[in-house]
Structures are given as C-alpha cells and as structure tokens.
Amino acid sequence: MSRPSSTPRRTRPARAAKENKENKENKVNQPDTDKVFSGSIPKLYEEYLVPMIFASYAEDVVRRLAAHPATHPAIHPAARVLEIAAGTGVVTRRLAAVLPHSISIVATDLNPAMLALAAKTGTSRTVEWQQADAMQLPFGDSTFDAVVCQFGAMFFPDKAKAFSEARRVLKPGGVFIFSVWDSIQENEFADTVETALAPLFPHDPPRFMGRTPHGYYDLAAIAQDLQAGGFRSSPRIVTVAARSLASSAQVAAIAYCQGTPLRNEIEARGKSQLKPATDIAAQAIAQRFGTGPVNGKTQAHIVTVEC
C-alpha cells in the first residue's frame, strides 16, 4: 500500500451547502445497525479491511501524534493517550510501537467484539483496553494529554457531544487528532460496491457506505461541531489520498460486504442475499479495476485541534 499524501483542502460554497444538508439528514437517519460490529464482522474487518484501507492511515495519524508537543517525552514525560473507536487495534498497535514507553495508552471501543479481537491480537507493550461509548467517556476531566480517533467520528450519533467528551478529558494544551473518510465518490472501492448493489435491491438499496463511513466529510460542518464541542482553536485539516490494494476483486468485495455493517443491511433484506451481493460487488470491482490484484483510490481528512 502506498504512503498517503497530504494536501490542504478547501470546500466550495455550493458543495458545502449540499454537504451540510446531507450531514443533518444523516444525523437523524443513521440506523443503530450502522454501529454494530459483531458476529464474523470483526475477524473479516481485521483480516481484509485493515491491510487494505486502514493500515497506511494508521501510520499517518500516529506519525502526526508522535510529532506533537503534547506527546513529546521532554515536555510530557508521563503523557497519557486515549484512543476512541479503536476497532480491532490497527492504530493501537502503531501507537504502542512508536510512542515512548513512558507514555501510557488507553484504547476504547463501543463494540466489545472489536475490542476483544484487538486485545487478543495484542500489542508490543502494555495497553489498557476498556469498552467505552465516545458519547459518555468513563474518565475524569483533564486526564489525557492526547486523544486520537481513526475513522470513528462518522459513527457518532451526535458529533458535537462526542467532541465535547474528547475536550473534557483533555488537559489544557492537549491535542485531539482524528480522521474521517472523504465522500464516497473519492473512495473508489466503496463507491463501486454501493453502486453495484443498488440494482440488486432496487426498491431499498443499501446505503450504509455513503450514509455513514462516507457521510461526514464537510469541513465546515466538522469545524462547526468542534466549536460546539468546546474547542476554541481552529482545527488544522488536511486531505490525505492513498491507494487501496487487494489481492483480488473477491477479497475487496468480501471486505466491504461482509467485514462492515453493510453486511447487516444486506442480511436484513434476506440472509440468502449475502453471497449474491458479494459476488455482484466482486464482478463490479473486477470490471472497473481488472482481474488479479486490484488498486483503488482512497481519500480522507485528518483533523488536528488543540485545547
């Protein structure tokens, strides 16, 4: 997987207005099943999605955190880092490998099954694992020097509330670094899968990918939610493009259709629909990207904001 490249991003006024409307609708219409990572989803997520789209962004986010004064050992020799929405631990493992051992790491996730797999996979040094809801963090005020969250903010029912919790647990001078996916049109595998599945369910197409993982990309809305959450400094936001690699179109299709809550949407239309939906997605990916190993664009926003 190629290393992500960063570019500053400006949002055009017309697009920003459209995105604001979409984000308000998503906040109301996001079903609870969009946040459920259970059954075989965690294993498939770790096996397929992590190397395909998450690993390179984990390196990028941790590199930014490690370079920030909030985690500099000479300034904060006993710093504490909180990870929200740790998933199966791709960022956690990188944090444990890169940050000085004097810095303690607490990794949390809403879904016990994801956290259990992360803990079982393990890290290069001790990490405290704890189930936690980002909307109501079980930690005291001003207890962490840094909070990090990779691709979790899109799932928060109330972004401003979750951001206020991150702000609450941060010490003065602390930093919050998080990432969100750009629009689905800028993420080629996800876009291809969602488009391919629509004809299979013409009266009720599954829209999980566009609605939730790729539904929170308006930079103006992100800045507004951070301000509503109590952050007074302006966020620094960069857009990071990378390449997503999979050994085959079938692997990419399994990753999206069976290793994410898109599976919940497909199976809600009939348990027997999972295999044909996966096969249709694989055919569409192969048609667009070729047979054999496939390579598609991904794009995300990385947000850094200080207390």
Cross-sheet strand order for the largest sheet: 1-7-8-6-5-2-3-4
- Structure annotation, total helices: 11
**Morphology call:** globular
Please count the beta strands (DSSP E, at least 2 residues each): 8
| Helix and strand run | EHHEHEHEEHEHHHEHHHE
Distance between the termini: 34 Å
Task: Describe the overall structure.
- There is one protein chain.
- Strands 1-7-8-6-5-2-3-4 form an eight-stranded mixed β-sheet, with helices on both faces.
- The chain has 307 residues and is an alpha/beta fold.
- It contains eleven helices and eight strands.
- The protein has one domain: Vaccinia Virus protein VP39 (Rossmann fold), CATH 3.40.50.150.
- The longest helix has 26 residues, at 41-66.
- It is globular.
- α2 runs parallel beside α3 (90-98).
- The protein has helices at 13-29, 41-66, 90-98, 112-121, 159-169, 188-197, 208-211, 219-228, 249-258, 262-268, 274-289; strands at 5-8, 80-83, 104-109, 128-131, 144-150, 170-181, 236-246, 294-306.
- The chain starts with a strand and ends with a strand.
List key phrases describing it.
about 300 residues; alpha/beta; Rossmann fold; eight-stranded mixed sheet; 8 strands; globular
